[in-house]
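cache lookup: miss for this entity combination. No prior model stored, computing from scratch. Input as submitted by user K.M.:
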Amino acid sequence: GAVVSQHPSWVICKSGTSVKIECRSLDFQATTMFWYRQFPKQSLMLMATSNEGSKATYEQGVEKDKFLINHASLTLSTLTVTSAHPEDSSFYICSARDHTGAREKLFFGSGTQLSVL
Amino acid sequence: AQSVTQLDSHVSVSEGTPVLLRCNYSSSYSPSLFWYVQHPNKGLQLLLKYTSAATLVKGINGFEAEFKKSETSFHLTKPSAHMSDAAEYFCVVSDRTGNTGKLIFGQGTTLQVKP
């Protein structure tokens, strides 16, 4: 079945550095991908919608200059957390929409745990 | 706008007893509703979904949910809990405006299964 691969699964970085998270659809083309973040013991919150070949659409309150999203190909979207700070420590998860076939399906990556020291 | 409320942040049941996880939604049009499960250190897994077909939806691992429009509810049930069912469960409503397919997640319910 369709699989979404998300890397890295966990990352520890120093405050002020940038971290890139990749989300790949392995056997389907995803024109739309979504990025979520989850704070401990809280629900997932949509950060942005990533559309291949165009600018991402950010949810209210999400800093687009801090969370850079690039969706340059139909199988890859990246989220870069720039100048990371401890408050950015969170669980980030992507999802990709598969439009092939009669019904749309949504597949999630396994998530990335980011810890900023 | 859509929203979803999970009425219980934590549910504890004994193994072999029924499970009920409650969810109420708000939507300005016919929603698509989902239940996802998240096991520790793993990604999200779709349990079941309602997309305006049968109101009683059967999912994986013996779970099912009933869409009740009059009550704006989509409660998740299972006749007999297993230890492996212990996880975080999310009720989700889909934003069907345009073709964005954005999902709005509930706050989550932690299911604890006692031996």
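stored under new cache key. The longest strand of chain A covers residues 90-98.
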